[in-house]
Amino acid sequence: MVIVDNAVYVAGRRTADPENLDETFEVMRARAGFAWIGLYRPGPDELDAVSKEFDLPPLAVEDALAGHQRAKIEKYGSSTFLALRPARYIDADERVEFGELHVFLGLDYVITVRHAESPDLAQVRKRLENDPALLAKGPLAVLYAVLDQIVDEYSPVINGLENDIDEIEDQLFNGDQEVSKRIYQLSREVMAFQRATHPLSDILETLRDALAEHDADTQLRDNLRDVHDHVLRIVERADSFRQLLQNALMVHTTLVGQDQNNEIKKISSWAAILFTPTLVGTIYGMNFEYMPELHWLLGYPFALALMLGLGFALYKIFKRRGWL
Amino acid sequence: MVIVDNAVYVAGRRTADPENLDETFEVMRARAGFAWIGLYRPGPDELDAVSKEFDLPPLAVEDALAGHQRAKIEKYGSSTFLALRPARYIDADERVEFGELHVFLGLDYVITVRHAESPDLAQVRKRLENDPALLAKGPLAVLYAVLDQIVDEYSPVINGLENDIDEIEDQLFNGDQEVSKRIYQLSREVMAFQRATHPLSDILETLRDALAEHDADTQLRDNLRDVHDHVLRIVERADSFRQLLQNALMVHTTLVGQDQNNEIKKISSWAAILFTPTLVGTIYGMNFEYMPELHWLLGYPFALALMLGLGFALYKIFKRRGWL
Amino acid sequence: MVIVDNAVYVAGRRTADPENLDETFEVMRARAGFAWIGLYRPGPDELDAVSKEFDLPPLAVEDALAGHQRAKIEKYGSSTFLALRPARYIDADERVEFGELHVFLGLDYVITVRHAESPDLAQVRKRLENDPALLAKGPLAVLYAVLDQIVDEYSPVINGLENDIDEIEDQLFNGDQEVSKRIYQLSREVMAFQRATHPLSDILETLRDALAEHDADTQLRDNLRDVHDHVLRIVERADSFRQLLQNALMVHTTLVGQDQNNEIKKISSWAAILFTPTLVGTIYGMNFEYMPELHWLLGYPFALALMLGLGFALYKIFKRRGWL
Amino acid sequence: MVIVDNAVYVAGRRTADPENLDETFEVMRARAGFAWIGLYRPGPDELDAVSKEFDLPPLAVEDALAGHQRAKIEKYGSSTFLALRPARYIDADERVEFGELHVFLGLDYVITVRHAESPDLAQVRKRLENDPALLAKGPLAVLYAVLDQIVDEYSPVINGLENDIDEIEDQLFNGDQEVSKRIYQLSREVMAFQRATHPLSDILETLRDALAEHDADTQLRDNLRDVHDHVLRIVERADSFRQLLQNALMVHTTLVGQDQNNEIKKISSWAAILFTPTLVGTIYGMNFEYMPELHWLLGYPFALALMLGLGFALYKIFKRRGWL
Amino acid sequence: MVIVDNAVYVAGRRTADPENLDETFEVMRARAGFAWIGLYRPGPDELDAVSKEFDLPPLAVEDALAGHQRAKIEKYGSSTFLALRPARYIDADERVEFGELHVFLGLDYVITVRHAESPDLAQVRKRLENDPALLAKGPLAVLYAVLDQIVDEYSPVINGLENDIDEIEDQLFNGDQEVSKRIYQLSREVMAFQRATHPLSDILETLRDALAEHDADTQLRDNLRDVHDHVLRIVERADSFRQLLQNALMVHTTLVGQDQNNEIKKISSWAAILFTPTLVGTIYGMNFEYMPELHWLLGYPFALALMLGLGFALYKIFKRRGWL
Q: Among residues 238-267 of chain E, which lie with CB inside 8 Å of chain D?
C-alpha cells in the first residue's frame, strides 16, 4: 500500500477524505484547507503522479527516489524539501539502523514519504488530529510533529548506546578480550549516528530562522526550539560517547600491557618453582666418588624433601610478593 | 514541603508573606513589588497551580517536570526560563553529582524549582535580604545571586577533581596498577562536568547581551561579568584536567612497557643465576672414565663451591648492570 | 588530437561546427551563441592560440600549463578559471588516481582542458546536447554539467575506499599482520582524496553566491545546490573513513598486544609440559645408593608413564584454563 | 612596605612626591597630572583606602584581593581593571612560577598591585621616567610599559622550556627511563604557561581596538602592536612545545617496545649459549653400555672443548646477526 | 658589503645609480621615480642611516635589527614593514634552514634587508628589470616579486620533506629501528616549516584586501592571488606531512609489537628444538637397573638419532606454522 493516508484538513479538523490523489488537490482548494498525504516506499510512477498534481520540485523528487541522502533542508521557490534520518537501535546486533523520511512542504500541502518502518507517522497523525489548535497552523505544524517524533525516537538509540558503553566498561576492567572489537564496532555505530543527527541541528536552525523572519506563530517557534534543544542534547551525548570509546580503546591498550606484566611474573614464578628440584636432582646426579649423601640410608627421601621444600619456599616467596 | 518559601519584595525588602500562592499574585500586584517563590521537587499538580497563577510558558513547565535538561536559557515572550546544573563533588566515590535547578523569570516574579539539595538557595535568599539595594533591582538580581551561588559551588568540585589528579600522578609514577581504571573513571566525571558547565558560559553571554541591549543597571551587568569570568576560569580548569588525564593515560602505557622491560631483565638475571649450577652439575654427571675431579677427596665440595661461586659472580655482574 | 571538440551552440542547439579555432570566435559572435571547446593535453603553443583568440587571463593559462594545481576558482575580470581534480579508484593498487581538469569560463565561451582520461566529458556533452533547455542557459550550464560529472565520478572512489575499509576490518580481527601497512597506505589515499575534494565545497559555495547575487536562473542554482549537497556527502564520508582508519590503527596496536599475551601463555604451557618429564628424568638420574624404584623390574616403564602422565595432566590443566 | 612608590607626573615628568595617599589625589588634580601608585601585597584595609580615594570599582577591588584570577581586562565606566600573570622559570625544579599583577587604570591615575617579586616594576618606572615623551601620554603609557615588561619576562621562560625539551630529546634517544615522567611534568608546566599567556592576546586586541576607536596616539598603538606581536610569538612557541612533548611521549612508547625487542634477543642469545653445554653434558651423562667417547683417555677434555666450542660458535652467530 | 644594490627606477626602467644613500633620496624625488635599496646584514649604524633618510618607523627598524621575528606585516602610517621567513632544505641533515628577510615599503621606496643567502634577490631584481611594465607599478611590484621568489623557494623544501617521508615509509615497513628518531626529528622540521609558512597566508590576505580597497592595479592583485594560491598549496602539503608522520609513528608502535610477537615465536621454537634432545638425554641418564636400550649395541647411536629426529620434526612443524 503506497498511499498510507490522504486527508484534507480544514481549521485543524479532518474533512471527508478525497477518493484519490487527483481529487485531493481540488478538494483542498475548494475547502481552503491543506492536504497531508502519507506515502510508503512509492515507486517512480507513483511519486511522479503526486509530483505532477502538487508541482513538486523535480530535483527534490529525484532525491526522494534515489534515497541515501544526508539529512538536509532545501527551499525550491514556495516549496521546501526535507530529507530526514530516523534511527532505530537493534539491540541484538548492537547496531543503529537508519531509515529515511522525505517531506515535501508547500503552502497548502505536506507530503511525507517514508522508506522504513520508523518513524511511526500514524501516531504523529493521531496526536495532531487530537490537537486541532496545533493542526490548524497548517503544514508547518505537521513538520514540527514529524521532527518531534523523529527526535523522540533517537532517545532509545542514545540509551541503547549508553547501555553498551556501560557493558563495555565492565568488560574492559574484567579483562574480556573481545572488548576491543566491540569498542571498534560501537564507535562505528556512534559515528554513523553522529553523521545522521548532526545536520538536524542546522536544519532546525534554518527552520527557526525562517519562522522568525516571517514573524510566524510564536507557539510553533517555541515548539521547534524545544525540538532543537532535544537534538542538541542528543548530539552532545553522542559526542561524549565517541570520546568515552576513544578513551576505552586507549585504556585497553594499557590494560593488555599490564596483563602481560602480570602473566610474565606468574609464569616466571612457576618456572623457578619447577626448576629448583631439577637443580637438586642434577647435583645428586653427579658422579663424585666421595659424596656422603649418596650413601645415606635416607638420602633419596632427603633429596625429595629438599626438592619439595625449596619449591614450597619459592612458592611462598612469590605469593608474598604478589607474583602468584 | 513543596513550597519552601513564598515572599513578596517591595523596594528590596520583604513584606508580609502571602498566605498561599493564590494570594501571592494579588499581593505582589497590590504592593507593586515582585514575588520570589521557592519550590522543591513539585509534582505536576503543584507546578500546574503556580503556572496558572503566573501564566508560565507551558513548554518550559514541561521541561521543568521532565528534568534531565541541559543547562539552557529560553525566552518566552516577557518571561524567561533557565535550566541550570548545580554540581557537588562526592569525595568517597570520586564522583560529581549533578542536580537540576529551574528558574522562571518574569517582570515581577521569579520562581525557583529545585530538584536536589544543592544549591543552597536559603543562603542566597538570606544574602539578598541582607542587601536590599541589590534585591531592589528585582527578579534579575535574584537570578544573578542564584547563578553566583551555583558557580561558587563549582569550586569545590574543581578542587576535588584536581586533588584526584594529584593522587593519580602519584599512583602513576609509583606503579600502581589500578591507576588506568581511575584515570578512565575520572575522565568520565570531568567530561560530565564539562558538559554541565560549558553551556553556562553561553547563558551568561546571552544574559549580558540582553542587559546591555536594555541599557540595564550597570551594577548587575558588572556582577554578571564577574560570574561569567568565574565560569570561564572553571571551564578552563576542567579543560586542562581532560588534557592532563589524557596525558596520564599515554604515560601509563609507556610506564607499563618500561616495567615489563625491567621485569624481564630481573627475571632473566635470576634464571641465569639459577641455571649456572645446573651446568656444573651436568658436567660432573657425565660418565667419562677419566675425569680426575670425580676422584678427588674434595671433588664434591669443590663442585658445590663452583656452583655457588658462579652464581654469586653472575649476581654481582647483573647487580652492577642494574638488572637486579 | 588536442582539440577534442569545437562547437558553437545557439539557443541550446549545436550549429554547424567551425572549421578551426580562428573561425570559432567569429561564428560564435555572428550567431550570438556560445562556444564550447574541448582540449586534451594541449601544449604551450596550442593553448596560446586559444588564449589569444578568447583573450584568456595569462596567469590562468600559466596555471593550466603548469598543472598540479589545487582545486580552485578564480575570477579574472569577466572570465573565470577553475582547476578541478577528478579522481578514479584503481582497485588493483588500492590507489586513488587524480586527474586535472581546467575550465575557462567567459560570457560566451567555455573551454575545458583535460589532462587525464577522466572525467568523461564526451558524455557530458552528449547529455547536454540532449537537453537543449539546459544548454540554452549558456556556459554556466556546461560548468554545472562538468562539475556534476566530476562529483558523480567520486562515488566509485568512495565505494572503493569503503570496500577496502571493510576488508581491513576483516583482516584486523582475523589477525592478519599486513593490516597495519594497508591501513597506513589507505589513510594516505584517503588524505589525498580529502585534499582533492575538500576545496570543491568552497568552490561550489562561491559559484552559488555569485549566481544568487546576479539573481540568476533558479534551475541552475538548484542544480548547483544538488551538486554541492553531493560533494558534502562525499566529504563527510571521506572524513569518517579517516576516523575509522585511525581507530583501526589504535585497535590493531591493542590486538597485537593481546596476541602476544595469548602466545606467551601457549608457549609457557608447552614449556611446562615439556619440562616436567625432564624433572622426573633428573630425579631417577640421581646416584643414591638406596633408591628402591631403580631396582624395580618395571621401574623404567613406570618412570616413562610418570613422565607422560604428568605431561598429559598439565596439558589438561592448561587446556581447561584456556591457555592452549 | 605596601606603598612602593607614589608619584604624580605632569607632562611626562615626576613632580614633588605627595606625602601620603590622601594628598596624591589633590596634588594630581591641582597639577593636572596623573598619579602612579605602586602597591605590593596590600591588605584589605590598605586597598580599601586607595579604592576610596580613587573611587575604584568594588568588584575589581574584590578580585584584586581574592587573587588567582585568570588574565583579563574589564571596563567599569571610565576605569579599567587588568589582571595579569607574570611568569618566572625556576630552573632547579623545571617549574614555571606564576605571579599576579593587578592594574587599575583611570583617566588620571594608574595603580599597580603586585603580588610577587616579578615583574620588575621599578625598572619599568625608571625606563618611563627616562622617556618623558612617552610618559606624557599618561596612564596608558604606563600600562604599555608594564605589559611590555611582563611579556619580555616571558622570554626566559620560553627559553627555559625549550632547553628542557632539548634535554628531553637527548634523554629520549639515549634510553633514559626517567624521561616519561619528565615529559609529563613539563607538559603540565607548558599547559599552565599556555593558560597564563593565551588570554593576553585577547587583552591586547581589546586594548588596541579601544585605542583605534578613540583615534588615540599612533605611537602607543604601534607600541601595543609590538607587544601583541611578541605575545603571539610566545603563544606559538608554547603551542609547538606542547606538540613536541606529545610527539616525544608517543616516540617513547615505541622506543620502550623497541628496547624490549632488543633485550629479548640478547637474553635469548645468552640463554642458547648457556644451554648448549648442558645438552653436551646431558648426552655424556647417558648410561649406555657402549659409548666409545666415555672410554677415551681424552673424552672429558674433548667434551669440555665441545661445550666451549659450541658456545663460542653460537656467540659468533648471534653477534653477526646483531642480537648481541 | 652592506649595500648590495641601490637603484632608482623611473617608469619601470633603471636610471643612473645614485652615488650613495644620501643622494638616493634626492634623485628619487627629482626624477619622480622610486628607489629600491638592497641591504645585506646591516649593522645598527647602517640601518640607522637609511632609516633617517627614508624616515622608517623606529619600531620596525628595531624589529629588523633584533631579528627572529615571526612572518608579519605591519602598517606604520604610509609605510609598511614585512618580516618574511625564506627557507632552504639542507638535505645532508634533513633540516630546514630558515632565513629572515625584512622589507620596508613606502610610496616611493622599497628597502629589502636580507639576513641569509636566500632568497636570491639578485635574480628578483633581474627578473623585474626585464619586465619594465611590471616594475613601473612601483614598490608593490617589487614586494610581489620578492614574495613570489620566497614562495617559489619553498617548493624544494616541500619536495625534500616529501622525499624524506617516502624514505621513512620504506624504513618503516622494512623494520629499520632508527625510524622513530627520524620521524620525530622530521616532525620537528615540518612543524617549524608550518610555523614559518602559515602566517604568510594571512599576510597575503592583508595585502590583497589592501589592494582591493584601493582599487589597485588588477594585474598586481591577480599576481598576489597567484602567490597566495601557491602558499595555500604549500601549507596544505605541510599539514598533510604532519598527519602522515603522526600516522607513521602510530604504525611504528604497532610494528614494533608485531616484531616482538614474531621474535618470541621464533625464539620459542628454537628453545623447543634445543630442549628436546635434553629430554632424551635425561631419560637415558636415569639409573634404572632394567633399561633394555642401555644394553643395546647401537643404543647410543639410537639415542643420538632420536635426538636429531625429534629436533628435526619440531623444526618442520614450526616451519609449517610460520613460526620460523
A: 249-250, 252-253, 256-257, 259-260, 263-264, 267
